[in-house]
Sequence to fold (502 residues):
Amino acid sequence: MSKKQFFLGMLLASLIGGIVALAGVSFLSQSQNATSFDEKQQASFVNLLSGKDFTVPDGINFVASAEIVTPAVVHVKSKIAYPSSGRIQRDPLQEFFGIPPQGGRGAGPGSRPMPISSGSGVIISSDGYIVTNNHVVDKATEVEISLENNKRFIAKVIGTDPTTDLALLKIEASNLPFVRFGDSDNTKIGEWVLAVGNPFDLTSTVTAGIISAKARNIGILRGVVENNMEVESFLQTDAVVNPGNSGGALVNLAGELIGINTAIASQTGTFNGYSFAVPSTLVKKVMDDLMNFGTVQRGLLGVNIQNVSPELADYLEENFPVEQGVYVGGVNENSGGAEAGLKKGDIIISVDGRATNNVANLQEMVARKRPGDKVEVEYIRNGKTHKTTATLKNFSGDTEIVRREIPKTYEYEGVVFEDVSDKVKSQLEIAGGAVISGVNGGKWGRAGARPGFIITSVISESGRTKITDVENLLEVLEANNGEPLVVLGMFQDGTEYYFEVE
Fold:
């Protein structure tokens, strides 16, 4: 090889290397700046297997799908710092001045094991975003993630949505395997699916089944969600799902996420033939909202609805024939539905061209939208079919996007504090206080300080001081000069508790 050929070869290799490096930087930048999980997944090239075009092997073959998905399904362990019921009635003044309380020391949550909730989660981006069920992390003060390779991380809860029983978590990691979103609208009854979970002590579990039904409403969120705003439009499968698999992945044979396993139909607490998953089209919208706004944006049509039952169909038959659809029992004033001309007695049969055969169908279609979005509504009135366009509104009756405010935090001697929200003040009927949002060990941790505890007053040898906010608390602590303190307050379920800081 001549010197000229050698230098040309080196130059060509350098150019190729530079192009690859620039492409890598570009992909990384795109992933970090993405505003939806579609963009994040498209921008990431880390998960080489899921990034390739995929062809389902001939015959029924679950191996390829399982290999893609299992590395991206994690175990989620949530620690809850206070008991779920009961009130701890003790007099801290007695203990502070040397009189043992009835029942002795250590009757509070600081001296008993923390309750633990666990389930599964699904990594949906290479930079550490994870989707799970809200009930898996509800009231958690610490959430630990265990990967399939047994690496562990403490996760931050980005946001939760009780109306769909979904939550978004984030761990500080990169180059993680993830599961690509599929289109749950395209799933068919009878299609093969896999349920993949990561329950406690079992690492990954994979079970197979078929889609048994779509748009199922089983009433598990009824009474749990305020204002009856729950959205239940589950995919029903016969794939075995047990409680530790809550928050795990329901995937098709291409290894695409088509649902988040959420519930089972059982009177014993174990699988009894039916399991239910939140469809991926709804999951993706909720996750995008939580990532970008910290809270879910709900667009409302503003109508009271019910299924067209056989009895209702018989009644309506006298006026015009109808078999399926959603009956409008009332329309709220100044709502998007009212402005679009919908009236009591209308039968909504489709939204944006997709049939709404029942309430679950309609709720899911609208729940995918945000305030300000327009939807085409097809309905029957007096035997004739009509179409109209409605602009969805939020709870306040306008089209504004709502963002969750991130509270300001303060750190003192290894403890992180933040002010009590107005909502919690109202619920607990307290004037103020300071919430412990993090404990990094130290004497406060040894004394029994726990995340989620609301400090309402502090007792020192000079007397008792009510705490109005974090700045007030810090003033009291700074002025104490290292004397012992009794810290009083309650957890967010109303359980009263206190601990002594030596």
Notes: The radius of gyration is 27 Å.
